[in-house]
Here is the input.
Amino acid sequence: LHQYEIFSAQQNREERQGHLPSTNTPISPHAQSESSNAPATNGKLSGGSKTQYTYEYLAQLLKDKKQLEAFPNVFHHLDRLAEEEISRVRVSLFQFEFAKDAMSNLPEPEGDVTTMTEKIFVPVKEHPDVSV
Here is the structure.
């Protein structure tokens, strides 16, 4: 949050000097727009209709989430919003098109559907924290 405040102050100073257009949305220092060298909004890269996030933005979100954990049961909405944004960024960063294509090219299943189960015994004395 401190880094964002510094960046925001710098952005406001540049807006007053006429270097940047005034905007109501905060600009994240963690991403660059694909079409220009100006920072993109909220750590996103805008590529056509699809939004792409950066790994630096995810790292900053995780750092912020960890800092929020220092104040349990204080910032309920911030915790929820941070977790939602982290999930959204993770899905965007780690979603691969080739995995979707590979699943669509699988052959049709043959034969009856069989459900198999296996019973596993875990010694409670050796592993007391495992609950099944």
